[in-house]
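Chain A, query sequence.
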Amino acid sequence: MTDLLQHQIDYYSARAPEYDRWFYRQGRYDRGPAFKRQWESEAQIVREQLLNAPRRAQILEMAPGTGIWTEQLIKIGDQVTALDASPEMIAINRAKVGSDKVSYIETDLFTWRAQRQYDMVFFGFWLSHVPGDKLASFLGAVHDALAPGGRLFFVDSQEVDTSHTRGEAEDLGGELQQRVLSDGRLYEIVKVYYDPAQLTGILRESGFEIEVLSTPNFFIYADGLKPI
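Chain A, predicted structure.
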């Protein structure tokens, strides 16, 4: 499993320069204007839910990647601490966001533990990359990092994931998926798709008051609290 998780880090480091093309439906991810409009309308549902809340002083963002969601978090937080295992992702995020409200830490998210508590924890398209045997430990670390009354918000892919190009993502069985970069390099990563009701139950058992919702086609997302 250690080799697989390092392979996953290597994949996202290599994918960093092209990651935004996936989210913004550019290049090989462009499936035409109708698909792009639907994708963007559903992404806007998640953005509006994220931004429609009181400001938080200290936000922890786990696996911030290229800064797609970091740009939103600085609108609702005084300070954002961004944790990522990929220096390439951090470099792109820093250049894109360009805000002194964000501090970056290069770290392994499976071993990192908070030295303080935060008013909000956010992760985008990360939970599905957590192996099942590490999920309880990861959610425990999130719970410990979140202050009582703090907000937990995340967004991820739907179980029927139509966001990738044909041949780019191939399920290998279990939690494994093979991904192909635009230059043809192959990587194996963890990819776990969750049913919203099932994931709601897991999160509530982990101590959060939360419900996982879905947009019509592409995303699942959740907005909840750690009880006081």
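The mean pLDDT is 92. The two ends are 36 Å apart (CA to CA).
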